[in-house]
């Protein structure tokens, strides 16, 4: 009889002292801390030739673009691709504005106090 009493009191004591109140509001405050997602997400993969296929991916990605192998391209295409990667030079337009404003011309319109 005493054994059942102590066994029940331990579980009751554990439930009262050490109970964590986890619910949907606690889960919405933080992200899920796991490296591998159990769910598979629909993702579009774009191949180097421009074709695209739909796959199921383990991370939530919208689109994955595979890199292009430059060794398979011709010299002209390779040069065009490499030129596109370089930052474009900004064109500076220097305009000269003629300033022929004469303030003395408008002195007659000022009122003297």
What does this structure look like?
The chain has helices spanning 2-17, 24-29, 75-85, and strands at residues 41-46, 52-57, 63-65. The protein has 113 residues and is α+β, with helices and mostly antiparallel strands.
Write the layout of secondary structure elements.
Layout: H1 2-17, H2 24-29, E1 41-46, E2 52-57, E3 63-65, H3 75-85
Parallel strand pairs: 1-3
Antiparallel strand pairs: 1-2
Count of separate DSSP helical elements: 3
Estimated share of beta-strand residues: 5-15%
Give the ordered list of helices and strands: HHEEEH
N/C terminus separation: 111 Å
Tell me roughly what share of residues is in helical segments. 25-40%
The major beta sheet can be summarized as:
3 strands, mixed
Q: Widest sheet: strand order?
A: 2-1-3
Radius of gyration: 36 Å
Large-scale geometry: elongated
SS-based class: alpha+beta
Kindly state the number of beta strands: 3
Low-confidence segments: none
State mean pLDDT (0 to 100 scale).
Answer: 77
